[in-house]
Write a structure and sequence with these properties.
157 residues; alpha+beta; 4-stranded antiparallel sheet
């Protein structure tokens, strides 16, 4: 059974500076990640779900378990390599003790691409025995920004 897709945010129009992993990351993409992490986009998550803000705070407060984090990062990066419909412009995959944070910028943003992202990351999260919470939003230049957290199911309220 594939993991539940927690959030899909359609067409968030934001703003335009550089920095993350491969190509140039625009300010609008950095703003998207920051707005989700700080709760600017979502105040309260739907009942029974953790918001990206809560998961970001949990991730930031964890210390890194090198064995678990390295294994989890390898599995998630393998999932990203399986993308066929999506061209990854930049990525950052980091894991700490029980939570992984995934930041992607991809070209395009069609529904098939969103489905591919959630399918591959959802499968990887299940292999790790975790839940996936993901937000996908359109940013300038025909790109989409993806913020995902892989976390324990029992964290849900």
């Amino acid at each position: 059974m594939l993991t539940k897709l927690r959030y899909i945010i359609g067409a968030l129009a934001l703003i335009s500076t550089p920095a993350l992993a491969q190509e140039e990351v625009r300010q609008s993409e950095l703003d998207f990640f920051r707005d989700l992490q700080t709760g600017e986009v979502f105040g309260e998550a739907p009942s029974g779900m953790l918001s990206p803000r809560a998961l970001s705070e949990l991730f930031a407060g964890e210390v890194r378990n090198i064995d678990w984090a390295s294994r989890s990062e390898r599995e998630l990066n393998r999932a990203l390599e399986r993308f066929e419909l999506v061209k990854i412009v930049s990525k950052r995959v980091r894991c700490n003790f029980t939570v992984c944070e995934i930041m992607l910028v991809v070209d395009g943003g069609n529904p098939k691409a969103s489905a591919e992202i959630s399918q591959h990351l959802g499968l990887a999260s299940r292999i790790l025995g975790k839940e996936l919470t993901i937000a996908i939003g359109a940013v300038e230049g025909g790109r989409s920004a993806v913020l995902g957290y892989v976390h324990d199911e029992e964290m849900n309220p």
